[in-house]
Design brief:
Layout (H helix, E strand, L loop, with lengths): L12 H11 L1 E11 L2 E12 L2 H10 L9
Antiparallel strand pairs: 1-2
Length: 70
């Protein structure tokens, strides 16, 4: 009979941070609380976490970087 083995793959914090910096992560949140049409609280957050190399690679692809004249 074949036996089934379970493995618990766990990632260290360093591996998780390395993957986030390599791929990048974007969090975009927007919250507005109003009562009877009066805005009481408004929260906007845009968080981008990536390495400089990852940011420059994607920024260049969408045209956010300007060419540097030598």
């Amino acid at each position: 009979m074949a036996s089934v083995q379970k493995t618990m793959d766990s990632s260290s914090l360093a591996e998780v941070i390395d993957r986030i910096l390599d791929k990048g992560i974007v969090i975009d949140a927007w919250v507005r609380v109003s009562l009877v049409g009066i805005e009481i609280l408004s929260v906007e957050a845009r968080i981008v976490i990536a390495s400089v190399d990852t940011y420059l690679k994607y920024a260049e692809a969408v045209g956010l970087t300007a060419a540097v004249a030598a």
